């Protein structure tokens, strides 16, 4: 994959993430903060972004979203395909809720 193709893919992902984040925040702020794994300060900034600002941020050459997990147990729970999938996803949500949120600090 060429570098320009990679940058285009990153821009599209960033734009989709920022638009989804703003929509989630408008619909249910508390749930959005939990689902996005962000703090109040980041939520406030995302909500206040203009369309032009969203496009500028999306054009960054780095991913703006990140995975909220960095341990094998959480990955295993989220990728569970067995009969206990619902319980595994609930357990994963509980583990993720105990993680610190991102802030602007």
UniProtKB/TrEMBL annotation:
A biological process (GO) of this protein is: positive regulation of DNA-templated transcription
Which GO terms of the cellular component aspect does the record hold?
A: cytoplasm
Cited Pfam families:
FlhD
Q: Quote the Gene3D superfamilies the UniProt record gives.
A: Flagellar transcriptional activator FlhD (1.10.4000.10)
Q: Localized where?
A: Cytoplasm
Keyword DNA-binding carried by entry: yes
Q: Does the keyword DNA-binding apply?
A: yes
InterPro entries according to UniProt: Flagellar_FlhD (IPR023559), FlhD_sf (IPR036194)
Keywords, ordered alphabetically: Activator, Bacterial flagellum biogenesis, Cell projection, Cilium, Cytoplasm, Disulfide bond, DNA-binding, Flagellum, Transcription, Transcription regulation
Residues folding into a coiled coil are none
Q: Give the main location.
A: cytoplasm
Q: Name one GO molecular function term.
A: DNA binding
Which family would the database say this protein is a member of? Belongs to the FlhD family.
Relate the protein's function as given in its record.
Functions in complex with FlhC as a master transcriptional regulator that regulates transcription of several flagellar and non-flagellar operons by binding to their promoter region. Activates expression of class 2 flagellar genes, including fliA, which is a flagellum-specific sigma factor that turns on the class 3 genes. Also regulates genes whose products function in a variety of physiological pathways.
Under the subunit heading, UniProt states: Homodimer; disulfide-linked. Forms a heterohexamer composed of two FlhC and four FlhD subunits. Each FlhC binds a FlhD dimer, forming a heterotrimer, and a hexamer assembles by dimerization of two heterotrimers.
Cite the domain annotation text: The C-terminal region contains a putative helix-turn-helix (HTH) motif, suggesting that this region may bind DNA.
The protein's name in its UniProt record: Flagellar transcriptional regulator FlhD
Which organism does this sequence originate in? Zoogloea dura
Query: According to the entry, what is the taxonomic lineage of the organism?
Result: Bacteria, Pseudomonadati, Pseudomonadota, Betaproteobacteria, Rhodocyclales
